[in-house]
Structure formats: structure tokens, C-alpha cells
Amino acid sequence: MFADRAKIFIRSGKGGDGHVSFRRELYVPAGGPDGGDGGKGGDIIFEVDKGMTTLADYRHRGKFCAGDGEPGNKKRCHGKNGNDLILKVPEGTIIKESESGKVIADMSGGNSRQVILRGGRGGQGNMHYATATMQAPKYAQPGQSARELWVNLELKVIADVGLVGFPNVGKSTLLSRVTNAQPKIANYHFTTLNPNLGVVDLEGGRGFIIADIPGLIEGASEGVGLGHEFLRHIERTRVIIHMVDAASTEGRDPVDDIYKINEELRAYNPEIAERPQVIAANKIDALYVGDEDPIQRIRDEFEPKGVKVLAISAVSGKGLKELLYQVREILDNLPQETVVFEQEFFPEDMAIDSNLPYTVEKSTEEENTYIVEGPKIEKMLGYTNLDSEKGFAFFQKFLKETGILDELETAGIQEGDTVRMYGLAFDYYK
Length: 430
Hints:
The protein folds into 3 domains: 1-155, Spo0b-associated Gtp-binding Protein, Chain: A, CATH 2.70.210; 161-332, P-loop containing nucleotide triphosphate hydrolases (Rossmann fold, 3-Layer(aba) Sandwich); 359-427, 2-Layer Sandwich (GMP Synthetase, Chain A, domain 3). The longest helix is centred in the middle third of the chain and has 15 residues, at 254-268. It is α/β, with parallel strands linked by helices. Strands 10-11-9-12-13-14 form a 6-stranded mixed sheet, with helices on both faces. It starts with a strand and ends with a strand. It contains 9 helices and 18 strands. The relative contact order is 0.12.
């Protein structure tokens, strides 16, 4: 089965924790803190692989995690960075945030490699937190948390020309005649299951890529059959070849078929229906011309609307050269840019903790006393006037929001116990 969609879970690496240690050497009685920094977490990177044509690699495995950074060590040793994880995808893959459906990246055009989730920063070791008032800090910064995300992968075929039409009108036969593609061909009354791509070679290197978009049916734009799964492949095409059975070998009206398919395109995406079209009236080798010429009927209906109609036989090859050069002429008059979907979701904006460190410890020297230390606490005390009612209220709110009060209670603090912070002492009351 052709796999053009997948839902996967991706997670970048967590940053390694900073280390708490002190230099202990002979003849160095007060060596000071020497805890090293943690390593950076690995990134999740998507990369285009020109040899891939489907997302089959992601159908049976749904979780992908980069390596975590290693913690720092003593003697100022830096932890090893986590390994990046590179996920290979075919060109034309769209990466979307699963819940909102917003585009994170379009792996096409010049975008062949993109970092989707960055790993967490490594935490700083305690060697960074020595100050004049705290020369032996017993805390270090935890590593930054990993980022994680559910994403949808969608493959939108990149082709200059899309070949559309009802099932069994001869699209696969045409593709096999004009390109190097080898689609399966048979008299099926259902549709090809995967878009077939082929390269049309014309003189002077003026070829183009053509995609046989699987046969559409009424209701495709509403998801009937495999409609939504295949309509997405038309989104990047610049010209549409609309193929019909001019001979009505199955009793279908070719004019009615064209209107129905165009309505499905319009219902799915109005912009697609406005792209240049060429009508390939196929199976002229099977025509029985009676009172009315069916080719002329199609021309009378659509050429006044600016749509060129060419009579062809995909089986015998009649009219194919004229069709291809007509398409090439239209392409030459259109802008060359590939349709690229703009980024709408930015993973780097996701909330992530700052992880400034602090410690909550019960004193071993004073009874019923708890010591709280940390760089953010020291900074906050430096600019807060605790003698004012407003300043003290701010101080209490800070302790609650940072989780320090919860940790004091976990450590077993009781009402009336003492809390010490950088030379200041407070009595604890709920």
C-alpha cells in the first residue's frame, strides 16, 4: 500500500543536569565549587531523501526520540551532548502539528533539512553560582526539559503536471506511453491506489514531471472513497491534464465527467480549479462517429472558456506529441516557483521551564531550622523591600509560585520553625 500519511510522536533530548561538587586536593583547603555543566539534548531533524517515494517507514513505528544530554561531573567536566535524530522523508513532505493541523515545515523547494525540535540546554554546574555571600553553593541547574510533539506527515507529490479524470479513462496508459513510469494497467473499474510519477523528455531539455493522480469519483472532496488522501497530490501541480473517455466506452458522458471532476477540485480547494487545464479527449481509436462528433461537442463546450481540447489515443499514440507540447507551452508561460506551504506553527514558542536552581535543606546545626538557597532567591532578596507590607506579600507569592513552600512542607517543616535565606531568618506559618 502506498503510504502518503503518518502520525508520529517526536521528542528532543533533555539537557543534562549541572553537577554539584567541590575541589578537594591536598594543600587546597578551600578549593571552591567545581561542578561541571550538563550536555545539550539532541535535536529532532527532518531531512529530504531523494531516494524515498513514500512514508512507509513511519507506518509501523510511531515514536522517535533524540538522545538526552549527560550530566556534568566534578573537576569542571562538561557532560556529553545527546545525539541528534535525523528523520529521512521524501521531497514534498508536509510536517503538521497534529492537534491544530498547522504547518511546521514543508520539505520541498530549497528546504532539504530543518530542525523541528531543539534539545534542552544543559544545566550549569555549581561552579557558576559562587558569590561573595555564597562561596560554597550546594545547588546546580537542572537540564532544560525535552520538547515533545505529535506531528502528522503528509506527502504531497511534487509534479509540474497533474493528470486527472474518472477511473478507467486511460491515464495509466498515457503515463506509460509518454514517460519512463511503469504503472499497472488493466481494465479496472476501480482506481489506481498510488500516484505514479514520470518524467516527460522533450527536445532541448524542456521536459517536465507528470503525475497520474488516482482516479477521482463524485464526493471525493467530502472524503468519499480515497478522495482526501489523493486530492492533496494535486495541490503542487501547475497545470492539469483533464482526461476523458471521448468514445464513452462505458456509457459515460465526457462533458458531464469534466464538470463533475472540476466541481470536486473546486470543493476541495477553489484555487486548484482555477489552474490552467488541457482536456485530453482519449480513445479516439474507438470512436463511432454518428450524427454528432463527440470531440467537436467537447470543444464547443470548453474552448470558448479558454480550455484547449486535444484528441488523442493513449493506446496508439496518436495526438500525444501535440498534447505534450501544448502542456509545455503553458508551463513556459507560468511562474517557475514550486508551491511551498508557509510555516504556521513554531515549536520553539512552546513553553519550557527556565529551571533556575535552588535547594531546600534541614539544618544539621540548628534545631527546627531549614535553609533555602539559590541564585534566583538571592537576586529576588536583593531588590525586594521586606520591611514593607507590599514587598513581603511579593516575597510570599514568590515562595509559593516557585514551589519552595511545597518543598519545605515535604521536608517536614512545622508552624513556628525557622527558615533561613542568605542571612535572613523567618518564622514559618501557614
